[in-house]
Amino acid sequence: MKDVAFGQYYPADSFVHRLDPRLKILFLIAYIVAIFVASNFYGLALCAAVLILAVALSRLPVGKVFRAVRGALILVIFTAVINLLFHSGKTVYWSCGILCISKEGILFSAYLVIRLVLLVICSSLLTYTTTPVALTDGIESLLTPLKWIRFPVHALALIMSIALRMIPTLMEETERIKNAQKARGANFESGNPLRRVKAFIPILVPLLLSAFRRADELGDAMEARCYGGKKRVKYKKLRFSWRDLLAAILAAALIAGVVLLRVYLGEIV
Amino acid sequence: MRIVVEHLSYTYQPRTPFAVKALDDVTLTIEEGEFFGVIGHTGSGKSTFVQHLNGLIRLPSSLKRQKKIKPKKGCLPPPPPVLKVGDFDLGDKKTDFRALRKSVGMVFQYPEYQLFAETVKEDVAFGLKNFSEGKPDPRQTEEAVREALSIVGLDYDEIADKSPFDLSGGQKRRVAIAGVIVTRPEVLVLDEPAAGLDPLGKREIMQLLHRIHGSWCKTIVIVSHDMDEIAENCTRAAVFSEGKLVCVLPPSELFRDAGRLTDLGLDIPLTAKLVLALRERGVEIDCNFRTEDFVAAVLARKGGAS
Amino acid sequence: MHALEFRDVDFSYGDPSQDANAFRIRKLNFTVEEGEFVAVLGHNGSGKSTLARLANGILTADGGEIRVFDTVLGEKNLFEIRKQVGVVFQNPDNQTVASIVEDDVAFGAENVALPREEIGRRIDFALGAVGMRELRGATVSRLSGGQKQRVAIAGVLALKPRIMILDESTAMLDPRGRKEIIDVVLRLNKEEKITVVLVTHFMEEALLADRAVVMNRGDIVMQGAPSEIFARSDELLAYNLALPRIAVITKSLREGGMSVKDTLDISSLADEIAGELKCGS
């Protein structure tokens, strides 16, 4: 539980791991746009090909990737079934009241399933290959233009950074308090729902108090290190490298590709 | 209640890259009536060990165990772990863990951070309420809370209706300990009960442990980093290092061979350091390393010599 | 010129005129010389932590003045003073703002907007000074207590303070962690010439200081060389402090009729005892 891996980060040294986090976030956004622009199977095939390349470059175990899909499986099946049964089309194979199964319905739900699976894999690729710290750095950097409208980007970034730092500590603390109350006979596992909620009070109260106490002390420690002045700089600057350029070109090519495929081949349904 | 531990092993996050073997084939017995010390560095497995004693960490059930461990050819399968506290068999799933926890009290590190109730008396009574069958009798509850508070040196009438959060650090710690001993556990396990206290607070905690030891509280198991504390108070102590049990000895023998501890990077009590320094100067002092005993031994030598 | 000077400092939590139990410091005078290593002792609630928090303006005095290298601490020069007076606190988990060691060490230097190259140099220096250079990319939450406290010290060092105050920074550590911190502090004092104020309730740590100061109920009640302080055992006990174990042994031996001198050093006590025993025979 003490790991950086409380997110999903899978430590490895790969092309994708080393990409600038900002670029990875932007790539994910571009990718989402691409799979929604892709209007036929050729476009989706292109998207899938790019994703397969990315996964291969990331050196993630295939099992990890499938596990991400498994997490969203219910959503995928649900979407597929609903669309399969409610999408009307010309070539009807079976119908019953408002429910029908048509060729177009099958195609359409297959199309949606592919979109969803690609989306899930691509976003988990981001969290698998980027540490939470890099992710927050990336978000901060991407939000920098908001400074123009006086949005406190630095403060937001600091809040995210402290939250990341404190999550493992508070998780350990929760475990410790839970054990201490269990040792005093507290029962968290049985009883009706109301009782169970009440059973958590002996955990929640100490946890909240501890969080406040920590916040207080952290505030002092930050002040002691000169926090609160007007100017503040950031030591670590994210830098673009050739890898990032390559990935950016890939993303641009992908979008161009799906747009072309859409224009020349039209929609499937 | 006698505590019997055989072949106890425990791994955190097993079968992941982060797997840590916290306990490795630990076998020891703690007799009823002992004031038993557990020493070792942070991460040596001592805290994991004591959390087993009241079932906060469970033994893997025997069925799972058989499935998991496939004996290699020509190798004997590892002997099954045994963990018994009195009549409670902690390896048995059907064991009544609530009853066990009533008999084995556990004081965690910095126990004051588990206080939660609006008043001191409610907080101290929490365990009593949890362990009683049906609704506890209010008069008996008050009696028990009053006694628990008086054992830790606090006055019920003065403090019972206060919020535990308005007390001083030392008082909070004592209220938290009262909340564990209120059920009169036969075995009391404490994980560094004096950590972070000032010298006076430390002394008070040790005094209160001696007050209850030998009455209803038969056995005390204490995790400590303070070798002087171990030398002064314990009947025997177990030394842990990297999940393994190094030895279990009474302080008089444990600290005689200082190298055993210093090789592990552990400290020895001041009296043992003095005995060593005196040996280098050609003076042999034979004592059990309690301060009182050391002083008596030196004075006896002086008396005998003149 | 004193490194740190309290002149008639008044301070109170709560309102003393309303609440008799309100904590207060009245007309406190206290000085620390440049390069000195001072240990501040006192039982819980004696005011020793308040002293630490007043010295760099985290708490504001109600009266009197606090001077740091002859500059009076005030609203306007708060940041200048804080750069000079670094404070390390008690809980190793509540002082780090970043998940990665070097990011946290950079925090103070970032706050005062140093040039980026300089921040890099400061991180190198600070992590080197606490012996953690090889762990600069490590995750803070996976470090030991002693290592976390060393990161906290490095975070303060990155501001290049001339005075360092450790407010019970060893209280929550195991013996190994405590030794790590004390070793670092001693080295900073000797090699980097940083003035050190160590607030502690481990009597053994106070033995290493040039001077020990005992606080009781918001007032300084004893000060002097550690050996002098610990020779006055009855007074110490009256202020709810315990004697270091070695002083207890010396005292009991003397009460048993041996003439051993007060000492806080194991080998000199052994010399004394051995001498006594041999000359008797």
Strand and helix layout:
The complex is a heterotrimer of chains A (269), B (306) and C (281).
Chain A lengths: L14 H4 L2 H17 L3 H18 L3 H10 L1 H14 L5 E5 L2 E4 H27 L2 H12 L9 H31 L9 H7 L1 H24 L17 H24 L4
Antiparallel strand pairs in A: 1-2
Helix pairs in contact in A: 2-6, 2-7, 2-11, 3-6, 3-11, 4-6, 5-6, 7-8, 8-10
Chain B lengths: L2 E10 L7 E11 L4 E5 L6 H7 L9 H7 L13 E4 L2 E2 L7 H7 E4 L12 H12 L6 H14 L4 H4 L9 H13 L5 E5 L7 H14 L6 E5 L3 H7 L2 E6 L2 E6 L1 H4 L3 H5 L7 H11 L10 H15 L1
Parallel strand pairs in B: 3-8, 3-9, 6-7, 7-8
Antiparallel strand pairs in B: 1-2, 1-4, 4-5, 9-10
Chain C lengths: L1 E11 L11 E10 L3 E5 L6 H8 L7 E6 L2 E2 L5 H7 E4 L12 H11 L4 H14 L15 H13 L5 E5 L7 H16 L4 E5 L3 H4 L4 E6 L2 E6 L1 H6 L1 H6 L6 H11 L10 H15 L1
Parallel strand pairs in C: 3-8, 3-9, 6-7, 7-8
Antiparallel strand pairs in C: 1-2, 1-4, 4-5, 9-10
Helix pairs in contact in C: 3-4, 3-5, 4-5, 5-6
The biggest sheet of chain A amounts to: 2 strands, antiparallel
**Anisotropy-based shape of chain C:** globular
Radius of gyration of chain C using CA atoms only: 21 Å
Number of helices, where a helix is a run of at least 4 consecutive DSSP H or I residues of chain A: 11
Number of domains of chain A: 1
Q: From the alpha-carbon coordinates, what is the Rg of chain A to the nearest angstrom?
A: 24 Å
CATH superfamily of chain C: P-loop containing nucleotide triphosphate hydrolases
* pLDDT averaged over residues of chain C: 90
In one word, what is the shape of chain A? globular
Structural class by helix and strand composition of chain A: mainly alpha
Spell out the helices and strands of chain C N to C: EEEHEEHEHHHEHEHEEHHHH
Helix content of chain C: 25-40%
Q: What is the mean pLDDT of chain A?
A: 85
